[in-house]
Write a structure and sequence with these properties.
Order of helices and strands: HHHHHHHHHHHHHHHH
Number of helices: 16
Distance between the termini: 43 Å
Radius of gyration: 19 Å
Number of strands: 0
InterPro entries: HTH_67 (IPR054058)
Protein name: SalK
Largest sheet: none
Number of domains: 1
Pfam families: HTH_67
Helix content: 55-70%
Organism: Streptomyces buecherae
Length: about 290
């Protein structure tokens, strides 16, 4: 097997992930989940956890990691009194269909490149492992959609959750709680903008500041809110270890396959971003 270039799997993930996560910000998502009675923040919790079944706030908090339990508990498990996990899975797929058609256009959706990307991404998922990866394992039990663009989206989702489950194990080992993890990530400049990161996850400004103080106590965050050299080194170590735990699908696909999938997904993601896939102030330190 050809060895992969350094960070090749991470780079592939970074262009695949937006094509999954953009659906949560799309009007199609709001419409499809609203159609079955699921509204506002409950829609995200329900959509992402639905493959796990009728789970409660504890399971969602554990598997999502950086959301405040009290915030989650306002929506789960009450959402399952409104609809079923099966209906949510169906609605989310319909939302993904509409979102990708709008952002990418009919020509890209029907292109041979989309079919090729779906085939490559699905091949990579063949080497994903279920053990200690609950969100991945639950999603892996779902049927692969027939349409190439939805098969691609499904595979991107599997690869996202596989990496994410591994990343949580790394965060626990580093003794970063959910809020500390997101605060340090936003301080790196590579994550979601702090205002979005805090409000979407249910944390108060006071709780955010308290997490910053805890990170300062460990020498990870400077007085100005930037990472210290020690903090920067830790964030780098977290990603390297996550890469190690996530190497199997990309090694299975091989260097040429990873390079091609990255090329195709980069083009799709660039088109989606240019079409307004995310709010303008969503990423960065704003």
């Amino acid at each position: 097997m050809t060895s992969l270039p350094e960070r090749a799997g991470r780079h592939c993930h970074q262009v695949l992930n937006p094509l999954h996560s953009c659906t949560y910000f799309a009007p199609e998502f709001t419409d499809e989940l609203g159609r079955i009675g699921v509204k506002e923040r409950a829609a995200y919790f329900a959509a992402r956890s639905a493959p796990l079944g009728r789970v409660g706030a504890g399971t969602v908090t554990a598997t999502f990691y950086n959301f405040k339990y009290d915030w989650v508990a306002q929506h789960v498990p009450a959402v399952w009194d409104v609809t079923t996990p099966e209906a949510v899975v169906e609605a989310r797929l319909a939302a993904a269909d509409g979102t990708l058609r709008r952002l990418l256009g009919a020509e890209v959706i029907a292109s041979p490149e989309m079919a090729e990307a779906a085939e490559l991404a699905l091949r990579a998922t063949e080497a994903c492992g279920r053990a200690a990866r609950p969100l991945y394992a639950a999603h892996a039990d779902l049927a692969v959609p027939d349409a190439p663009h939805l098969a691609f989206w499904h595979a991107a989702t599997l690869l996202r959750e596989h990496r994410g489950d591994g990343h949580l194990a790394v965060l626990v080992a580093a003794e970063l709680d959910g809020l500390e993890a997101v605060v340090s990530h936003t301080a790196s400049g590579f994550g979601v903008a702090p205002t979005w990161a805090r409000t979407m996850r249910g944390w108060s400004e006071e709780e955010w500041v308290a997490a910053q103080e805890r990170l300062r106590g460990r020498g990870l965050l400077a007085a100005d809110g930037e990472l210290t050299p020690t903090g920067t080194a830790l964030r780098k170590e977290l990603e390297v270890e996550t890469d190690r735990l996530d190497r199997a699908p990309y090694e299975h696909l091989g260097a040429a396959g990873v390079a091609r999938l990255t090329e195709l997904a980069t083009a799709f993601a660039s088109t989606a971003m240019a079409a307004g896939a995310f709010p303008a102030d969503f990423l960065g330190k704003g």
